[in-house]
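hiii, so i know i said id send this last week but things got crazy w the move. better late than never?? heres the sequnce for the chain we talked about at the cafe, plus the structure i predicted for it. fair warning i was half asleep when i ran it
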Amino acid sequence: MKVSKLSYIRKWFILSIIFGIVAGFSAVIFYFLLNLSENFFLGFLIGYYPPKPIGEGGNLSYTFSTHYYWLIPFITALGGLISGLIVYTFAPEAEGHGTDAAIRAYHFQQGKVRWRIAPIKLVASVITIGSGGSGGREGPTAQLASSISSFLSDILKLPPEDRRKAIAVGIGAGIGSIFKTPIGGALLAAEILYKRDFESEIIYPALISSAIGYSIFGLIYGFTPIFGYYTMGFNPLRLPLYVILGFITGVFSILYVKTFYSIHNFFKKIKVPIHFKPMIGGLLMGIIALISPEVISVGYGWINIVENQNVNSLYSFLLPPIILIIALPFLKILATSLSIGSGGSGGVFAPGLFIGSFLGADVGLLFHLLLPNLVPSIAPFVILGMISFFGAAGKVPVSVLIMVIEMTGSLQLLPGAMIAVAISYFVSGNYSIYSSQVPTRKDSPAHTMEFEIPLLQRIKVRSCTYENIKINLDSEIDVAIQLMNKYDILSLPVVDQENNFIGIVYMKDIMNKKGKIVEFVVKGAPSISPESSLEEALEIMSNNKSRWVAVCDKGKLIGVITLQKIIEAYKKRI
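okay and structure toks below
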C-alpha cells in the first residue's frame, strides 16, 4: 500500500520517522564538516580557534590568540569566493540564509526543492562559515534537511500538500537537531512559516521528527544543552527591567532586518559578476573582524563567555572592553549582513542569538551598575536578550522562547522571557528577517482553495441588471400565460396593488384554466435583496425550479434577475 493512501496519523507517523532520520544525520554531517572547515581555514591557516560553548566541549576560561591576525580578511574573502563560485555555478537558490529559501518553497513552490540543493548548500555553508563568515548553522541545516525531505517526497509520490508538510517538518527537525532543542524545533516548524500564525497540522509530525533527529545528533555529540545549565533563580522584581529589555531588542530587531536587506539589495544592484559578490562581502566582513574577532563564524562560545561575565576574555585590536561590549551588537549586524546579504551561504538565526545576547549584556551591565542588589548577574539579561531579539526578528516568539530555555537548561526564566519577547514582538511590528514569510495561513498560496471565497459568493445581486417582470394579484390567467410565453419562463412573481411581493404563479397550475390567478398563487416564496450574493440567488432558483428570482427591498418587488443575467455578471468578473 502506498504511504500517501494511509490515514493522516499513520501516514505521518511513518513519514516523520523517515524525515527525522534524515534531519538527524544531516545535522551530524554538517556539524562534522563545519568543524573540519573551521579547523582548516581558521585554525591551520591563521592559528585562530574560536571559543566553543559548554555544550560543545568548550569552557569559560578562554584567551584570544592567533598567529596571522592580519590574514583574517583574506581568509573570509577566500571563503566567500569559493562559496560564490560553487553556489552561482550549480544552484543559485542555495545562496543566502537557507531557512528563507525553504519557507519560500513551502508557500510558492508546492514544496519542490531541487535535489542538488542539498550537497551545494552543505559545501557552500561549510566553507562560508568555516572560513569565518558571520552566519549560523541553522539555515543550512534546515535547507539541507528540507531539500532531502522534498526529494524523498517525490520518490514516495506524495501530493503537493504532503510535500509542503515534509519541507516544514525538515526545517523543524533539522534546527531541533543541530541546536539540541527538540521541542522548540518542532514548534518552529509550525511557526516560522508565518508572521502571526501557526501551521497546526505540522506540529504532530514535527514532534516525532525533531525528537528522532535530536536523538541521533545527541548520541554522537552529546545531550548537554549548548549553553550549559543556568541555575540562578527567578526574581519577579526584575520583571519591569525585562520590559525595558524587550523594548530595546524590539527596536534592534528592526535595525537588523533593515540593515540586512539594505546591504542585500545593494549587492544585488552593484555591477560585479555575481560569483564574486560573496568574496567582496567576506572581505569587508573580515575587516570588521580585525576590529573585533568575536564576529567571526557562529559565535556561540562568546555568548557563553559573556553570559558568565567573563568579559576579560573579549578581545579587540582597537576598542576597550566596555566599548567593545556596546559595539558588538552593531558590529555583528553589519558582519552578518555583509557575509550572508552579499550572497554567502549561512543562517541568520545564530547571529540573531549573538546580537540579542550582547544587547542583553549591555542592558544587564547598566542595571547592574544602577541596581547591584537587584541585578547581581547579567546572565538572565543575556539569555532573555537572545529570546526577545530573535523572537521579534524572526517572528517566532513561541518557538524561540522554548528553544533558548532548552539551550540553557532552565525554566526559571520563563516568566521574564515571556514578557520580554511579547514586548519585543510588539515593538518590531511587521519587520521580519525572513522575507518569504506571509502574515497568516489565508495569505499563503498553499491554502488558497481553503480560504478563497467562491466568486459567486463575492458578487452581489445589485451588480446584475433587473428585469421588470411581474403580474398583479387580480390579473386574468390569460394575461399571465401571455407574459410567460413572452419571457419564455414557466412562472411569474405576483404583487398586490402596492407592489408587495405576494408569491409565485406557475404555468402548470393555470394551464387550461379560466378566471383570475389569485386562487393559484403559491404564497411565501423566498426572495433576495440587492445585497444578497449570486450564490444565494442560484440556490433559490434551484429550490423553486425556476430561471428567475424576485429581488425585494422591505417587501417591495424591485424586479427579478434571471439565470442569463447572473451568467453575464459572472463572466464580467472572471
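btw The radius of gyration is 32 Å. thought thatd interest u
miss u guys!!
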